[in-house]
Amino acid sequence: MKKIFCSWVIVVSIMLLGFAGQAEALPLLTFEGLQNGEGVENFYNGGTGSAGSGPGPNLGISFSSNALASIDEDAGGTGQFGNEPSESTALFFLDGSSITMNVSSGFQNQLTFFYSAPFSTGSVTIYDGPDATGNVLATATLPTTPLNGAPDPNGIFSPFVGFSIPFNGVALSVAFGGDPDFIVFDNIGSVPEPATLLLLGSGLLGLGWAKRKNKI
C-alpha cells in the first residue's frame, strides 16, 4: 500500500510539474553583443541590430526603432552609467517618449528589470496586444534613483535599481517610458509564478504524510 501511494504521489507531481513548465517566461535580456549606439531591432528575434551585430538568439522578441544599446564609458563606450547588473551594455532611447518591446509568444505573471533614472521618473506599461496596443495589464511609475551612487569608476546614472511588476493575463508588448536620454534599462526578464516550488513542497508533504500513516 505504501509503495502504491508513493508511486501515485510521484506520478501526479511529475504531471503537475509538466503543466507548470508550460507557463511562459521572458528570457533575460542583457543587450550584450550589440554595439554602442546600435538599434536593438531584431537582435533578439534571430536577426541583427541596426549595425549588423548578430544574429542574436531567436527569442521572438523585437524592439521599436528608437531602442538603442549603450556601452559603459568605462568599457569603451559612451554610456554615462555605472554598476549595471550585467557586463557593460544597457538600453536607452533618444527620441519619442518610450521604447516598445514586442514578445511574439507572450509571457505571463511578472516583468522584472533594472533601471537608472536620477533626474526624472519613468514608467512601464504592459499590454496584451503588440506594439503597445490592446488592454493594459499593468502600469507603474518608476521613481527616480540615486545620482552617481555607484560609479565604476565613472557613471552618474548609477546605481541601477531592480523593479518588478506582477500582472494577470498574457503580455505581448511592454512600453518602457521616460524622458529621452534620461533613463536607462538593463536585464529585462520575467519571473514565472513559483508553482514548481509549491508543487515540490506538496509532494514532500504527501510523502511525509504517507510515511507517518504507515507508522500508525
Explained architecture:
The chain is α+β, with helices and mostly antiparallel strands and 216 residues long. The chain folds into two domains: 1-10 and 194-216, no CATH class; 27-189, Jelly Rolls. The protein has helices at residues 2-20, 195-215, and strands spanning 61-63, 68-71, 89-92, 98-116, 122-127, 136-142, 161-177, 184-189. The strands form two sheets. Strands 1, 4, 5, 6, 7 and 8 form a six-stranded antiparallel sheet that branches. A two-stranded antiparallel ribbon has the order 2-3. Strand 5 and strand 6 form a beta hairpin. Helix 1 (2-20) packs antiparallel against helix 2 (195-215). The longest helix has 21 residues, at 195-215. Residues 2-23 and 192-216 have low confidence and may be disordered.
Describe this structure in a few short sentences.
The protein is α+β, with helices and mostly antiparallel strands and 216 residues long. It has helices at 2-20, 195-215, and strands at 61-63, 68-71, 89-92, 98-116, 122-127, 136-142, 161-177, 184-189. A hairpin with an 8-residue loop joins β5 (122-127) and β6.
Q: Please write the string of helix (H) and strand (E) elements.
A: HEEEEEEEEH
Query: How many strands?
Result: 8
How large a portion of the residues is in β-strands, by DSSP E? Answer: 25-35%
Report Rg. 21 Å
Average pLDDT metric? 85
- Major beta sheet, specifics? 6 strands, antiparallel
CATH architectural category of the largest domain? Sandwich
The CATH topology assignment of the largest domain is Jelly Rolls
User: What is the helical fraction, as a range of percent?
Assistant: 10-25%
Principal-axes shape call: globular
SSE-based structural type: alpha+beta
| Continuous helix count | 2
Q: How many domains is the backbone divided into?
A: 2
The CATH class of the largest domain is: Mainly Beta
Report how far apart the termini are. Answer: 14 Å
Low confidence ranges: 2-23, 192-216
